[in-house]
Design brief:
Elements lengths: L5 E13 L11 E13 L4 E12 L2 E14 L1 H7 E2 L2 E4 L1 H22 L15 H4 L4 E4 L9
Antiparallel strand pairs: 1-4, 2-3, 3-4, 5-6, 6-7
Length: 149
């Protein structure tokens, strides 16, 4: 079995919000808005932070919002392989893995938050990560803000 070269230090549900007042009670005109980002916490300790913000909107009004995050530490060998010519190369495999974990966490948090209210039939759809992340992400380490959106 192949090892990934990193370990997840933590996974958090940082924020979960739902507004039954903004929900019409009918599952019409609902869309999902997703923002996924990452940043280097420390180049010396080879730690990356990932964040996923999911908003479920009805008629362009946010009815549910979830923010999940994680901290990932890479082995020294793997980290050294990721840095090339002053750039951090984050493989699509890692991106997909972290996205799937945070998306699944958000999905569960949303279901748990709304299990006893009128929005208990609203949940995040299953999505194909291959359609979203089809190539590695490359970041210039001189750039103070590293993010994927």
């Amino acid at each position: 079995m192949e090892t990934l070269g990193y370990k997840i230090l933590e996974i958090n549900v940082d924020r979960i919000f739902s507004s039954t007042k903004k929900y019409s009670g009918v599952k019409d005109n609902i869309k999902v808005d997703i923002a996924f980002s990452n940043g280097v916490v420390s180049l010396e300790s080879s730690v990356l932070a990932f964040r996923l913000i999911v908003r479920i909107l009805q008629d362009d009004k946010t009815i549910i919002e979830s923010t999940t995050s994680s901290m990932v530490e890479f082995s020294e060998t793997y980290w050294d392989q990721m840095i090339q010519d002053g750039k951090l190369i984050l493989s699509k495999k890692i991106i997909k893995h972290m996205f799937s974990i945070l998306y699944g966490t958000a999905r569960g948090a949303i279901l748990q938050k709304n299990k006893n209210n009128i929005m208990n039939n609203i949940f995040l759809p299953i999505i194909d990560y291959n359609e979203i992340f089809d190539e590695d992400a490359i970041f210039d380490l001189a750039d103070p803000i590293l993010s994927i959106e």
